[in-house]
Design brief:
This protein is α+β, with helices and mostly antiparallel strands. Helices cover 56% and strands 17% of the residues. The protein has a five-stranded antiparallel β-sheet, sandwiched between helices. Strand 11 and strand 12 form a beta hairpin. The protein is rod-shaped, with a radius of gyration of 52 Å. The structure holds adenosine-5'-diphosphate. Adenosine-5'-diphosphate binds next to helix 10 and helix 13.
């Protein structure tokens, strides 16, 4: 068991089973079944082998006894044990139903004879299967008997009109002991193997699930601390556990970013909302002054109106941003050329007001994969920015098809953006400070919305700009 004290603490719910115990039980059952099967097979094989050996040895003795009976007279047959090895067998010879020889005592011989006569033939050569037989029957038959796991052979031989009947019994005590020892050995060996395999399996399972325990422990600690900046230790196991720890960390990072995003958004939003509200509050205080002139009151009301419009604009953009976060936008088809003309038309008064020259180079029928409503928002934001950040000079819009893409350039000759700011202008509420000098103050949400919408429609954005030399925003739409 691992020495880390944390393991003791990581108890699972009493109703739940640990992965380790599940694996261990399944493993134990499989090993038990395999070894049980192997034990049965080996005992059956041993039995068959023992049986064949006994039959072979009975037959050998039988041949030797027949040879002795045929060649020797009765007196000599009484000393047959001198010529035949009967150490593992009992031999009983009858001549015409009279006992001629037995290597056992009289009692044992009588007992064996009784035993043989009362048993049923289990391996008959003839048609006497499972029938009790009498002695007279027996002496006319030759064959094998099986009593328990031991074998008896009965044979008859005719010599000089006399019938010699003999029994050979494999030594029961010897065979029993021998076999029992082997059986016990097989079973004990299997129990030993079973215990060793359980022990090894336990080690292996512990080693395998150790990373899981480590991850679980670290996750519990993270949960306790509630600190989203912490990470679990990334394991180098090269398997699913490594994948689990890295995936879990990347999930934590995403959650941390989202939480940070929400926090930042709340802070930015309250800051942005507070500015117009403070202005409104100031103007209301002025209005409350009884000495205020009509002109000043009108001016205050105008400021209040402007600030409340700004508030509405901010809230509208917030709603749009949150809708973009969760909305699953469908792949719709729009015409870029039409959307551009509509946007230019609605912005013409502002361009005329600033006496900006407009240069249009727009191909016809520019079909792109984009939602028309969001396409209008994107183009409008780019065009209003170009107008907003250009004091005088010109604005040019170019749109054309390039293989599977449709390219849009919105170019102005305005104040430009410093290279250090280019990456930041797409962030929420980011406004380049210099751009504010003498310029209309924006909300800093337009390009953030453009970026989010373009991301959804897989439209790439590039910006090229030089301070005091104008900017060019390039969008690469997917053509249909
Ligand atoms: P805003 O409402 O301030 O225009 P945007 O998100 O649209 O917010 O733009 C972010 C900032 O990027 C602007 O405040 C401005 O400083 C800069 N910017 C955007 N477009 C242009 C442009 N065409 N020329 C110069 N600066 C630009």
């Amino acid at each position: 068991m691992p020495s880390n004290p944390h393991y003791k603490k990581s108890r699972i719910h009493p109703k739940m089973k640990s992965v380790k115990s599940k694996l261990f039980i399944s493993y134990g059952v499989i090993i038990f079944l395999i070894l049980g099967f192997l034990s049965i097979v080996s005992i059956v094989l041993l039995n068959t082998n023992q049986y064949n050996k006994q039959i072979k040895s009975l037959n050998k003795t039988k041949d030797e006894v027949i040879k002795e009976i045929k060649t020797k007279d009765d007196e000599e047959i009484r000393y047959i044990y001198k010529n035949i090895d009967l150490s593992n067998q009992y031999l009983i010879i009858y001549k015409n139903n009279n006992l001629l020889f037995s290597n056992q005592s009289k009692e044992k011989t009588a007992y064996l004879l009784k035993d043989v006569l009362s048993k049923k033939r289990t391996t008959p050569h003839h048609n006497h299967k499972n029938h009790s037989i009498s002695f007279s029957n027996l002496i006319q038959q030759e064959g094998y008997f099986q009593i328990a796991s031991h074998n008896i052979l009965v044979a008859n031989i005719e010599k000089n009109r006399h019938t010699y009947t003999f029994f050979i019994v494999s030594n029961i005590a010897f065979a029993d002991d021998g076999l029992n020892v082997v059986y016990q050995l097989v079973i004990m060996l299997n129990i030993l193997i079973f215990l060793i395999l359980l022990f090894l399996g336990n080690l292996l399972i512990n080693k395998t699930i150790k990373p899981l325990k480590l991850i679980l422990q670290e996750v519990k600690e993270l949960e306790k601390s509630g600190d989203l900046s912490k990470r679990v230790k990334e394991l180098k196991t090269g398997d699913e556990f490594e994948e689990l720890s890295t995936t879990f960390n990347s999930l934590l990072k995403k959650i941390e970013n989202s939480v940070e995003n929400i926090r930042q958004f709340s802070s930015d939003a309250s800051h942005e909302l507070r500015t117009p509200l403070t202005v409104i509050q100031g103007e209301l205080d002025l209005l409350r002054d009884k000495k205020i002139t009509t002109d000043n009151a009108k001016e205050a009301l105008h400021v209040i109106d402007k600030e409340q419009q700004k508030l509405q604009e901010i809230i509208k953009n917030f709603l749009l941003l949150s809708r973009l976060e969760k909305e699953n936008l469908e792949d719709k088809i729009s015409f870029l050329d039409r959307a551009l003309f509509e946007s230019v038309e609605s912005n013409l008064p502002f361009m005329e007001e600033k006496k900006l020259k407009l240069n249009l180079q727009i191909q016809d029928d520019l079909k792109i994969i984009f939602d028309e409503k969001y396409l209008q928002i994107v183009i409008n934001n780019l065009l209003t920015n170009a107008i907003k950040y250009t004091k005088n000079g010109n604005i040019s819009i170019e749109a054309y098809k390039d293989r599977d893409k449709t390219i849009l350039h919105v170019k102005d000759s305005g104040i430009g953006i410093d290279s250090s700011d280019i990456d930041k202008i797409f962030e929420r509420f980011y406004r380049v400070d210099k751009a504010r000098n003498g310029m209309e103050k924006g909300l800093g949400l337009g390009l953030c919305i453009v970026k989010k919408i373009c991301h959804i429609y897989k439209c790439k954005i590039e910006v090229k700009s030089q301070i005091n030399n104008g900017s060019c925003f390039t969008l690469k739409f997917i053509s249909t």
